[in-house]
Structure prediction request, 825 residues.
Amino acid sequence: MSKNGLTISLNEVLFYFTRAGFGVNVPIGVSEDFARGNIWIAQNGFDPSDCSILALDNLDSQKSSLSIQFEKSKDGGHLFCSEDKVLSAIQASVSCVDWLEFNGLDGGELKVTHVDCPLLVVSVLGANQCRGIKVTWTDRSKNQYQVNLNDDTSWEIIASSEDPILHSNYADVIISSLDSSNKTSISNGHLKKFNITEEKLKTLNNGVNVGDKWPEIYEYFSRCLVKSSAESRASGAGAGLVDND
Amino acid sequence: MNTDTSIIDIDSDFMRSPEKVMRLERMGSSFPTRLSFMRTLIRRMSRENWKFERTRREVDKDGYGLSVYSVTTPHRTYSLVGFTQEIPAEMRTDRVIAEVWDATFNLFDGVPTQEDIDYLAQNTPKQEAGRYRPSELALARANKSLRVFKNAVDSLSKGHQPDIDLLTSVGYLMRTSAVYGSGKFGCADRAKIADREECKAPFQMELLTVYLIRWFTIDSVEELAKEKGGKKAVKLDKTTRQFIGVGNATGLGMAPFLLKHPALIHNWVVAKETALARVRSIETALPGTLEVFLKSLHQVSQHVDEWNVEDEVQSERISRLTDEIQALSMWCENELNISRPYPWNGIYHYVEDNFSLECQEMVVSLIIEPHGTLVDDLAETMSTELIPKFNAEMSLVQLKEVVEGFYQWATTIDFSLEESQHHFWYYSEDKLEPRFGSKGVDDGVEQEMPLAIGRDVSDLNKVLMETSDDISISEFVMNYPEFRHIIRRIQNTFVRPYSEVQDNLLSQSMRPLDLLRFKLAFFGASKFDPKSDLWTRISMYQGAPMPDQLSEPNHDCWSFPIAGRSQSYPCINCTCQKTA
Prediction:
């Protein structure tokens, strides 16, 4: 499983990404959501390892943090890192879902400051069936993105450039209600639409292609494995049995 | 019936409580029932008149090479692609860490092309080291039981049947040591097939794979005997063919699955317990059912006689079971005991009050058995596609109430005691083999699998007790993200009361074997043969009809088989007679 250019299953995305998060000390419950978000990414035809490696690297190098704080304002809410670091999208994403579920948007907006991987936030919202919302950001390359999570059947990306959304990072993210009056805020944007059912079917029939970042994901995953020794092998299930019976 | 929300009345006098059922000791005494997944699959095969065919057999004189067996259902074809090879005896092991096997298999979704076969030939024999595609629904391997396999080939080649005593002592020709599905190693995800009628019940494609492997093993010995004996060779007689099962060696891999799928486990248990409750609530026995039950006691005592194991604990349990079945038979001979209203409830209570858990659970299986028309619909409620969600809308007060009301079994365990946290579960770097470590002895506590449900609930409870009710649950998990997983679990399990094993899984006295037997019984396995607290051998499909017997009467009545008999006790009150 440590080779490049593999095709993996969605179940393997769940298995490896949950543990890859755990490998950079993400609490297991948050890691489970992170992996579900990666399934959503994979189901929509993207390489989840390409999307997530930065968030894992940032936590591993302590450039980002899972520490998060919350403020409520008259316009909505604000999530931000409580340390002087980038806010990890792995934590930001679950806090966004919780906030939306508990508070709703009610005409306001939720702002998430200085998050490393905006698409990861989108993915966890998507995986949790958050619908009728838009997620907007301008990244450090000044590219603008708007993701509309329309309904149970479709979502779309509107981008100011053709740079892959997977690689858009370090931005303030704003989540607000999607309505007809402000559906598109980026002028002359590139629009890409996704049919959720069709994309999922394609993935189930063809698998998930993972590229050159996969070995790094696997490396984080492998931190959850315990080194084997002669003693542990000898105490494993089935040890000592003669199977030439 | 909605598979996620089976309506049950837990307060019913006839329904056993989760506190009674979901205890390791009882779980470790489980037997298969007519709702077990192999039984469900066989019923469907017969009902839908599935067609079976060996489509390729390209092997040398020793049987090494390629075989393909196909099964055609009303809507599609599935193919078992098998590769056999000679392996050195010293490398034959049933453990996950094995690297070679006598036979390796994939269940292919459809009819494989030559290109598919070529691809699989490069991968299947490598098992976990190979890579598979969404066209492969399952991956499996099996090793020969050398003595039985050789005896069968030698005997048949000389024109006579194999040594029935030897065959009975083992029960199978080959033993599987892993059957993977659901996206493992690149195979198809469950979601690809979940909507297919024949895949809706749990593990149907994995168990179809095993059924085809059983056929493959029987076909193989007959072909090898013909190769060796020429015209002198004979085939296995019908009763022997049906008696031969396929073995399985199972270790710790099953235990994490059981703990990671609480909603699924709830549905399995609710179905079985509802079946039992329906039978116990019958005021007057349905015609003929008591007679079938009494005959089944006689048959089961012979079955138990043939259930011989080396494990001392299990051996004692079997010995006691033998005596108890005899005592129950005698008690039932007194008509006054069984001719009262609610006879099944009376039998159940008598057994519960007087006999071991092993006997209690066997009788549960036996009294459900003659009531197919009453309970078989429950098999359709045993799946779930539920993805557990974290519910941020639940208040902290509610969460505290749920923990107090539904998790007393966890909050009353004293986890400060060393023996309460003696064990931990981890994945080894050796082919991800799951292992059950001891603290202070084994490395890897830091990489513990998140399976310590009781301890995590206990830890959460302590923090909750010191936390104000004023904050929301989303704020709580921002402050304590380490509890997110256990809160999500609690939120999804308290409405499914049969989903949790209500015992400490880290305790020094914990036997993973109990979890294995519980799960294997739901699959339909029999003849549990523990090799340690971590490992068991079993038989699957022993007594089940072969493909050419699926349309015969009594095809669904094959539980607790005995050697030399083609058929279990006369079938009654289920649907399988109707196809005769």
Q: What stands out?
A: Residues 396-493 of chain B form one domain. The longest strand of chain B covers residues 51-59.
